[in-house]
Amino acid sequence: MANMGQTTLQISDLRFGYDARPVVDLPALSVSAGRSCALIGPSGCGKSTLLHLVAGLLRPQAGRVVVAGHDLTVLGDAELDRFRGRHLGIVLQRLHLLSALSVIDNLLLAQRLARVPCDASAVRRSLAELGVEDLAASRPARLSRGQAQRVAIARALVHAPALLLADEPTSSLDDANAARVLELLVQRTRAHGTALLLVTHDRRVSGLLDDQVDLDGLR
Description:
Elements (H helix, E strand, L loop, with lengths): L6 E12 L2 E12 L3 E5 L6 H9 L6 E6 L2 E2 L5 H11 E4 L11 H11 L6 H10 L15 H13 L5 E5 L7 H18 L2 E6 L10 E4 L5
Parallel strand pairs: 3-8, 3-9, 6-7, 7-8
Antiparallel strand pairs: 1-2, 1-4, 4-5
Helix pairs in contact: 3-5, 4-5
């Protein structure tokens, strides 16, 4: 667990674009251990691209992304893959649950990829906290979109990452389940010293996280 108040994510002068069209231009952003930050803005303002840059799934054209003291922009591809697997939890809009595996095996695989001991009891606790423990033996194809989204969040949390990245985690959920997921994300952030960076256009998120940045206002 990181020390509370210690900076987990530090972004400086981050820029990225396509065909000379700027998509991300973020001078500075930091999120400390145990804190949560929502990046809010309409579709097309660069939210998902920014999250991919922080995850190391895209390489920035300028600037730095430092996570848990490691500058991701200078890591080689293999180093970056290992770092991402151990220190990041990621929930993308495309959930990437493996269809050939059951729900519980998807989470156990996440533990193996993170190089932490496989712990079925921890997996079941994570599923229970999101109200999907009864789906442990199910295949992803049998889940509703909302159920699959909650399973993906459980998978992202199961290895206690330093930084949790969430891309529109409430987009397919009704008000009650959206509130439950946000409450869990913030609770885990505070209890385990995990930094949370969430991007969304869902205004229900407003005021529920520690900090909020309107990306559209930075353009």
